[in-house]
Amino acid sequence: MTSMFLRCRTAVRSLLAVSTLLPISGCVMPFESKDISVVAVDTETGLPVSGVRILRHVDEPMDVDQADESVATTDAEGTAAVGAPRRSARWLVTCDGYEPRLVEFPSRAPAETAGRFECVKVWSEIARSGTLELAMTPMSIRSVDFKVVDADTGSPIPGAEVVQNSTPFFGRELDRRLLGFRGEAVCATNEDGRVTLSLPDCLETEVSIEAIGHAGTSTLFDPQSPAGVPGRREVALQPYQYEPIRILVLDRSTGLGVADAVVRVRMNDPHDGAFISDALWNTGEDGTVVVMKPAAGMGSITIEFGNRLQSEFRLVEIRASEFMPVAIGFDAD
Questions:
Q1: Interval 212-232: pLDDT, tens
Q2: Which of 136, 158, 173 is the last residue of a domain?
Q3: Which of the pair, 258 or 60, is modelled with greater confidence?
Q4: 293: buried, middle or exposed (CB in 10 Å: 19+, 13-18, 0-12)?
Q5: Is 253 found in the same domain as 233?
Q6: Residues of the domain holding 225
Q7: Torsion (CA) 304, 308, 314, 315 in degrees, nearest 10
Q8: Which strands sit side by side in the sheet containing 72-73, from one edge to the other?
Q9: Of the residues 185, 214, 237, which one is the last residue of a structural domain?
Q10: Shortest CA distance to 316 belongs to which of 278, 289, 277, 282?
């Protein structure tokens, strides 16, 4: 009886071992590698698209110039063969002049439809047919007219530097050179403070504007947002200003005003922090003095009085309505 039981158990083990090696007839194993035939087609013309690159989606920046077995490119007929294992079936699809796509292969159909730049194909269906059609949408460009003005006077600002930086909505790792569009561009406003930018309709674009003597600003344009991207945009830059302000210097130990203390106002470049200039004022008998304080982020105020430390004094700023800000002058160079 014992020997019969052992023979039966051995037979069962043999059957289980064989079953793990052979796929079930008519099914695709969860992590089986399949050769998929990809066909890329232009959505407007219906013609095949060559030069479509297929890359495995990753979460960190990748060097697309390196040889990568996971990269395939469609030929003149718009076709390519991709050996796609189920475990890594998440692709980035790019081509010059076309919108980038993220192709996902879930095990079952999702409850919600994919977004504009996402393509969802059930893995089992693709594995059975062995074919995947990629609908390639030509990239459209939207022109946006910018006018840059002074926030106080409303007058145009010529020569303002305008920088645009476009990135995909998905996967920041996608190299901009694959998009058929220069992701970063720098230009300047004309004499009327105007400049026209060409923004790709399928990418997020951050536009940063800086001008001499003014605080810079940046705006993110998202074509997928409800507001979309406007055809015109006026940007008002706040000028850097000196603000006249009354300073009261108090002795921390006595609480009394300190007469004849030196108030040093230092001015720094708002971009790199480099020293520009400083100015000195002396407090009166009541410990007060009116100084010209640079705009926020452009300067600092220190107290000097003999050999005493800065920490021994308390500085109080007193603003008054009769004091009017004065624009800070900058040399163009």
A1: 878 889 988 887 777 777 889
A2: 136
A3: 258
A4: buried
A5: no
A6: 141-237
A7: 0
A8: 72-73, 53-56, 90-94, 101-104, 118-120
A9: 237
A10: 289
